[in-house]
Amino acid sequence: MVHEPLIADAFGRRFPYLRLSLTDKCNFRCSYCLPNGYAKNKNEEDDLSLLEITRMVEAFAGLGVWKIRLTGGEPTIRSDFLDIAARISSLSGIQKLAFTTNGYKLVERAQDYYNAGLRAINISIDSLKPEQFKTITGHDRLLEIMDGLEACFAAGFSTVKINTVLLKGLNDTELDDFIRFVDDKPVSLRFIELMRTGNNQDYFKRHHLSGSVISNRLLSLGWHVQAREDGAGPAVEFYHPKSVGKIGLIAPYSKDFCTSCNRLRVSSKGALHLCLFGEGGYSLRHLLQQDEQKQELQDQIVSLMVYKKSSHFLHEGNSGATPHLASIGG
Questions:
Q1: What is the pTM of this model?
Q2: Quick check: 130 and 171 in contact, CB under 8 A?
Q3: For the residues of 30-82, what is the DSSP string, one character each?
Q4: What is the mean pLDDT of residues 226-238?
Q5: How confident is the model over 45-57, as pLDDT tens digits?
Q6: Domains of the chain by range and CATH?
Q7: By three-state DSSP, how is residue 226 classified?
């Protein structure tokens, strides 16, 4: 049974969903996120340890959070990724454990991920054309990742989603290809409207395309909007009677996007981020050092919600302090 989360903000929104970044490192060089690859800051803290992560998740679970998504960077490059997943999946109160990946070595690892307790996977695929995929991500791995997608079906994942960042001039001519791609596959392919961050202003101007292009195209082809599920993310999902798969749209510049916000974020260094585009995080790491700090940690989480704003204010050109999406898990 899903209980009403105890974490709430001043606008009546409750938060059953935590996106937990395991690392801000990534082995891909996606043009919209880390075009020059990951660059380590010499004064950078270590990522949270397995024990610190366990204490963090236990605290959130005790406050009614029942859905966890492991993110990055690329979370699977952590050598203890399977240990982290197995630990979280065993904790009381966690009903859904998901992760987002670029699909690196997914063919070999899909079954191990499932065996560790992961049941939902989001795979980033920004083009169905190998050359264009390489242009966007810096890696010629499309066919390998497609094989990984099939491996996820074989492993038994209950939810398989594909994330596709909508990029004018790079993949916008493939919209119908993507729609046809889900005809015979039990996946939800979600188009994500490009978001402006601290480091991508020029890129945003060149490649941003409104999500309305997707919704208008889908409606013209006979797709219908599906009712929102409990604990779902921000995607508006569409279905078609003749399609096995579904199409989702995450359009942060759309009207009232933030009214259904149900997620919080914790960075790989232990900072609570109330919004992807906020002005920074609130470090919780000092409250992760002893089991006896759990109540103090929970009290801090609840008290910080007073600072959560009504909106991300992207419409006003405010992209907050987030330098790029890998920094706190997208």
A1: 0.91
A2: no
A3: -TTT-TT-----TTPPPPPPHHHHHHHHHHHHHTT--EEEEESS-GGGSTTHH
A4: 80
A5: 899 999 999 999 9
A6: 17-184+192-207+250-327 (3.20.20.70)
A7: coil
